[in-house]
Amino acid sequence: MNSRHFLLISLPAQGHINPTLELAKRLIHAGARVTFATTVRGLGQIKAFPSLDGLSYASFSDGFDDGTKPTDDPNHIMSEFKRVGSQTLTNLILRLSNEQHRVNFLIYTLLLPWAADVAREMAIPSAFLCIHSTAAFAIYHHYFNSQNGMHQIYNSNPPDSVQLQGLPPFASTDLPSFLLPTSPHASITPTFQEHIRTLEKDANPCVLLNTFDALEEEAIKTVDNMNLTTIGPLIPDSSFGCDLFERSKDYLQWLSSKPTHSVIYVSFGSMVVMQRKQMDEILHGLVESGRPFLWVIRSTENGREEAEDLIKNKSEEEEQGLIVPWCSQVEVLCHNSVGCCVTHCGWNSTLESMAAGVPVVACPHFSDQTTNAKLVEEVWGTGIKARVNEEGIVEREEMKKCVEMIMGGGGKGEEIRRNVERWKSLAVQAGKDGGSSQEHLKLFLEKLR
């Protein structure tokens, strides 16, 4: 294993980088060398690089290194990214092979299916690291596989629901949003089709899943023509992950001043841009709950100053709310004062909340978040999905009701807390020595020898 050199590539998004880096750490602990690469601009945005013997960093180009895109046409942007990315990734692999040890294996993440073609042309084996849920991947496979994929039919006549064996029916509103032809993000749909078709070119397609057997056993069974390997949850501790935003420094002291399991942690990730009206409704619901809350509102988001003013006006004496521009989510979720997480239900946030034993109020916006929210509420029972009005807004009364249901003394909240503790225990078991995910990773590496 000492001679094996893995190249791991990822888009420069918070939810892509951290699980990829956690996998890098685990590969290194198994005796491998790892180079982590993202785009030129993305590498420059990382605030601090985790340091580990055997880990190095590199970059490839997306064609827009200065961040300036000459067009708003998403199809042109993705096409250019594929063209330039393929060229510069090839050059990177050649350079690494000349300077250090030859790259023996490529692992790529979401929206980079062309990387597998580069690897194939260079006679390097590859694997797809799926950083969405297995249920979401199974839906992509259901849509796009070349044997009986339903995309062409669904594109002209979207389904009322999609049924995967062993799981509840997924209504159209539960599907990853970009699969719907009316979605503003439908331009990336061809890339997900390319993911499936690219894997099918491989005689033994390998997909590494950021999940664990017990959590998604049924979803794993629905994809029977690919080698699916569960290696999750890939959750870096607060000392090893990296940030694309500057962390605040005052939130831990504030959390430590609050009673056990009393704080509502609110975060909608690094990409959701919330409507001002939605922000106001959530804020009023939190204030009216009377419970302390820590809310991450990025400094670039509209409404941040107004939200801070409202907190001061409504709850100055009690110090009920604290707004920060960014924080270590794992650190916050593992703090004993946190009792609930209001989340967009990105896959990282879903896993991190579960692994910390924190129940959630799900407020999905787009992408796979809608699918994850369905699983949280109906399959795992680790939270509640907040209902929206006819404008798609979670109203303040609904937010207050959901928080009270989870954090209050009622039977539903107790059931959810029991469920999340059970899944927390199973996640820990999967990730420890001898656990299913550790054993799967070990077997994956043994097959490469």
From TrEMBL:
SUPFAM superfamilies xrefs: UDP-Glycosyltransferase/glycogen phosphorylase
Q: Which domain of life is it from?
A: Eukaryota
What is the residue range of the signal peptide feature? none
Q: Which InterPro entries match?
A: Glyco_transf_N, UDP_glucos_trans
**What range(s) does the Glycosyltransferase N-terminal domain occupy?**
8-155
Keywords of this protein's UniProt record, alphabetized? Transferase
Q: Does the keyword Transferase apply?
A: yes
- Give the similarity note: Belongs to the UDP-glycosyltransferase family.
Q: Which PANTHER family match?
A: GLUCOSYL/GLUCURONOSYL TRANSFERASES, GLYCOSYLTRANSFERASE
| Protein name in the entry | Glycosyltransferase N-terminal domain-containing protein
Q: Which organism is it from?
A: Carpinus fangiana
